[in-house]
Input
Amino acid sequence: MEKTVFIKDTDGGTKDRTREFYTEFINQLRERKLEDKIQVVRVADVGVYNQGVVMRLLPDNFLYGQLEMANIPALIDESVVPGKRIDHLTCHHISKQMKIVLRNCGVIDPEDIEDYIAHDGYQALAKVLTEYTPEKVIEEMKASGLRGRGGAGYPTWLKWKFTREVKSDEKYVICNGDEGDPGAYMDRSVLEGDPHTVIEGMVIAAYVVGATQGYFYIRAEYPLAVDRIQKAIAQAYDYGLLGKNILGSSFSLDVDVRLGAGAFVCGEETALLASVEGKRGYPHPRPPYPAVKGLWNHPTVINNVETLANISSIMLKGGKWFSGIGTETSKGTKVFAVTGKVKNSGLVEVPMGTTLREIVFDIGGGVLNDKKIKAVQTGGPSGGVIPEDFHNIPVGYENLQKLGSIMGSGGMIVMDETDCMVDIAKFYLRFCVDESCGKCAPCRIGGTQLLNILEKISEGTAHLDDLKKMRKISFAMQKASLCGLGQTASNPVLSTMSFFEEEYKTHVVDKKCPSRRCSRLFSYSIIQEKCVKCGACYRNCPVNAISGSRESGYKISENACIRCNRCFEVCKFNAIDRG
Amino acid sequence: METSVVPDIANVVEKWKDKKGNLIMILHEIQNQYGYVPREISFQLSKLLDVPLARIYEVLTFYNYFKLKPPGKYTVSVCMGTACYLKGAPELLEELHHILGIKEGETTKDGMFQLEIVRCLGCCGLAPVVKIGNKIYGGLKRSDIVNLLSQYSKEGAPVAQPV
Output
């Protein structure tokens, strides 16, 4: 294949014309006997929206929009084949995205090291090994202002400096690819789409701290990511980019893969260390930090996948370039997984400082079914919800923290008016309770108690006192838990309580769920004035809770009803009341 | 997954013996071959690696990924990540409970289906998602479940087109 053509109908309206366009494109290629030279791919996302049928041509990187079937011959003969741009079809949509981490994803063949090298791959490593001392690299990293992308946002240069300063004949570098946060999948995409950039980042990190062994710790649930990184490691060894005397220098590094086994707590660095050592993933108190006593008690630096994917660009273009992107305290770009009730769900990479509104509406296309947005959740089970009033704040570590949420690994879940905040808090808390390792009491007991109270609230048996109790337990968990999981587990509860207090009170005092999610707090009935006696609800009720006939009309037995919502869905006359 | 194939445990052990922190990786290889980690194998491992059986079980029981019982022919995994949860995964799960007559972690009597809940399959863009065997089905509705399952149970082999 010499060229690749991506096609996608970006209007997302009534009819998806992607397939039509794709078929015609292939037919025209066949007529010209070009089908073996040009690969046509229907993609899920091309990075622009509402621009009609969009086509991206690689490697030329031309972007065409508002295409019609009649344009196809011209596209092939005047652009694809000669490699020239057709100006009047070019899409001038200015994307708010900026790709550093994802620059190669979907562009290069992730299983071919040559392709990566052709895209400036391993040049940063060559530059570092031949021109830079480790101190110089740290200086560049300091100038870049890059902070850890795994969640806490600790400055990467500082982590490296501390690990470098500790004297030891054995040091380790670990790439944290244990992406357990439900709703985030950027690490997976980078490992699958551009594994070499992560390896390159790791080798540079190892060179700086003086490590001789590196580990990729990856979830076993991501078999393709594991497979791709293993292939990439083997290729890097063949090319002398790993192993003894890398690129002819005196620096050597061996790299291996270790698999996670389905434990969320292992994303926490001390638990991760235990897991790499082949033990239960129990965290231990810090200090000592991994920089001093890490893997098998040797100094260890642990960086997230996305952090490492930034390194090669910083080394090639300079720390100053990187620090020119973003806000005062949060530099560079961040990849977010925008999902939930949003039209275009997927990964987006934006400069820090982009507002939530821009991400959800300008890039994400707005809320699914044009419903009203209620909140955006960031940071996964350790984060919080951000209501609409605050969607104009620029995204950055501190700004999100001030709102009681965190940047986290970059999950961003859009919620609309039909989502109940008590239900959301319960969802995240149940996750943390399930995943709590049970070593320390505040997390183990506190989490369970909090969950019990939330259950009571959603069943309508709680009192106002319970809300106070929840704040107290949450506070205790934050202060006294051993590791990050327990310390942050109550964040979703606290943040929903502070922004949606009224909703909690409606549950507790009025025993009502405004979003109709907590099934014990509402019942179904038929509005007789609107009912046309068609019997659709009667036929569809799975438990025969609806009785009556076409003459006498229908009614719902509250005791038999299991609140499955089927009758509400099938009624075409809005005659079912949920109150 | 063929359970009759006897893996060469000695080979697996030999491959990993000199590497530090090898236990989890060895258990992964065993589970890959058997579909679960049989108790007899754990006994043998204990001897070959010279680690107490308790150490092996300590690890096996901590991690969700490791299974101690043989799995059903098809593992039906319902994703309960946040995106899937919001887009109706609980309804899919309810429907699966209803049709298969089992709860999560259980296997149907005929050994065909095993029901599991998973955290996040990393396909949040396709939510809600169900994985059957190694195939992923996205954008599902409650009413899709019956057809999906029947394609597996009738043929004994997948015929549905994954998304």
